[in-house]
């Protein structure tokens, strides 16, 4: 994805997308990720609920119903970060 929020400057550390997802998750502005999504190609523009960037026609989108029942879409990379951060938050500390 061009201009992807996962492109970090330099090496090491957590990618910027993961940092943003973690921050939003901790602030409560991003809930737990959906348990089920439908994957397909976008036929019209949607805004990704994670990175707030456009999902353009032809791009892969993951559609789901939010907690309030509204339809929502997310980029595949954003969904991956969302799931990873959510799991890390729920994992017991060692």
Notes on the structure:
The chain is globular. Mean pLDDT is 86; it is low at 1-10. The chain has a domain at 34-86: Ribosomal Protein L24e, Chain: T, CATH 2.30.170. The chain is of the alpha+beta class and 94 residues long. The protein is built from two helices and five strands, in the order αβββββα. Helix 1 packs across helix 2 (76-90). The N and C termini lie far apart (35 Å). The chain has a three-stranded antiparallel beta sheet with strand order 1-4-5. It has a two-stranded antiparallel sheet with strand order 2-3.
Topology:
Blueprint: H1 16-27, E1 38-41, E2 46-47, E3 54-55, E4 60-65, E5 71-74, H2 76-90
Antiparallel strand pairs: 1-4, 2-3, 4-5
Helix pairs in contact: 1-2
Keywords, separated by commas or semicolons:
alpha+beta, two-stranded antiparallel ribbon, globular, disordered N terminus, 94 residues
Mean pLDDT across the residues is: 86
Number of helical regions: 2
Content of β-strand: 15-25%
Radius of gyration: 14 Å
Outline the low-pLDDT stretches.
1-10
Please outline the major beta sheet.
3 strands, antiparallel
Structure summary, number of beta strands: 5
Global shape:
globular
Q: What is the succession of H and E elements?
A: HEEEEEH
Q: What is the spatial order of strands in the main beta sheet?
A: 1-4-5
> Percentage of helical residues?
25-40%
End-to-end Cα distance: 35 Å
State the CATH class of the domain at 34-86.
Answer: Mainly Beta
CATH architecture of the domain at 34-86: Roll
Global structural class? alpha+beta
Q: Return the CATH topology of the domain at 34-86.
A: Ribosomal Protein L24e, Chain: T
């Amino acid at each position: 994805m061009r201009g992807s929020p996962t492109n970090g400057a330099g090496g090491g550390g957590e990618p910027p997308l993961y940092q943003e997802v973690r921050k939003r998750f901790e602030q409560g502005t991003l809930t737990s990720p959906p348990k089920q999504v439908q994957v397909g190609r976008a036929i019209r523009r949607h805004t990704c609920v994670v990175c707030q960037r456009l999902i353009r026609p032809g791009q892969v989108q993951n559609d789901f119903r939010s907690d309030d029942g509204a339809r929502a879409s997310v980029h595949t990379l954003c969904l991956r970060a969302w799931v990873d951060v959510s799991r890390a938050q729920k994992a017991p500390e060692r």
